[in-house]
Amino acid sequence: MRKAIIGGTGIYGLSNEVEQRTVETLYGAVECDLIRVGDQEIVFLARHGKGHSAPPHKINYRANMMALKQLEVKEIYATCAVGSMNPAFEPGDVVVINDFLDFTKSRVQTFYEGGETKVAHVEMTQPYCPNLIDRFKNAVSLTDLSYKGEAVYVCTEGPRFETAAEIRMYQKLGGDVVGMTNVPECVLAKELGMCYSALGIITNWCTGIEGVQIEGHVIDEAMGKNKESLTQLFIKLLTQGSSEVKCRCDQSLIIL
Ligand code: HPA
């Protein structure tokens, strides 16, 4: 059983022992790093590919998640940059995602497309693994990250940012933060029976909040500020013991 980290930049440096691996899947080839941390071999996957080459709507999510499955990953800890529409979560803070609202438009969200691949529905009572949420919360409290609580993630199609009217709508619907990648990543992990969790790193106020325009350097600064602490967080997460509570992440698929 392996653990995986999905992220962008900022969490390399966990170990000097890094082996690059190309995993061939039915959906395409995926580059991963196998990293030795203590007595464990962790998989690191750069969601957008090496050099951030795929935009959110073009990421090959099925290949990414199938590659992790083929590497015998059971637990996934993802990080994602998000904008905040909740006044309690400021740029530089981190939140643990506990649910999502899906506003994507053109993404394949399933491995089950009928015919030989059958028809299946994945159950979504707990899209994010409750055990991993607990572990994220325990580990984050041991770092100097500014952890502000759990949050509902709105996933947009991107790559454009949202309009102010869209953000007002998402707020009314119960969203706290917005990003472009957690769907279908979370959904596909569940189809494959893997436990999935995500830490949101607040990089900016959403459009129309605080009356400022979103700027690239603000996003970079928020990521940069948290780089060291995120590395510490992952070392703590990956070396802490497993909780005994049984989740149902590997029993969420209903095949018809
Ligand atoms: N909107 C969508 N995705 C994002 C944002 C945002 O404001 N910030 C970082 N990723």
Account of the protein in words:
The chain has a single domain, classed as Nucleoside phosphorylase domain (Rossmann fold), CATH 3.40.50.1580. With 256 residues, it is α/β, with parallel strands linked by helices. The protein has 5 helices and 11 strands. A 5-stranded mixed beta barrel has the order 5-9-8-6-10, surrounded by 4 helices. α1 runs parallel beside α4 and α2 packs across α5. The mean pLDDT is 91. It starts with a strand and ends with a strand. It is 25% helix and 33% strand. The site of hypoxanthine has 14 residues, from β5, β9 and β10.
Tell me the strand percentage band. 25-35%
Topology pattern, helix = H, strand = E: EEEEHEEEHEHEHEHE
Helical element count? Answer: 5
Count of folded domains? 1
Topology:
Elements: E1 2-7, E2 18-25, E3 28-37, E4 40-46, H1 61-70, E5 73-84, E6 93-103, E7 120-122, H2 130-140, E8 146-156, H3 164-172, E9 177-179, H4 182-191, E10 195-205, H5 216-239, E11 253-255
Parallel strand pairs: 1-4, 1-5, 5-10, 6-8, 8-9
Antiparallel strand pairs: 2-3, 3-4, 5-9, 6-10, 7-11
The chain binds hypoxanthine.
Hypoxanthine (HPA) binds at residues 81-83, 156, 161-162, 178-180, 203-204, 206, 214, 219.
Produce a short descriptive summary.
The chain is built from 5 helices and 11 strands, in the order ββββαβββαβαβαβαβ.
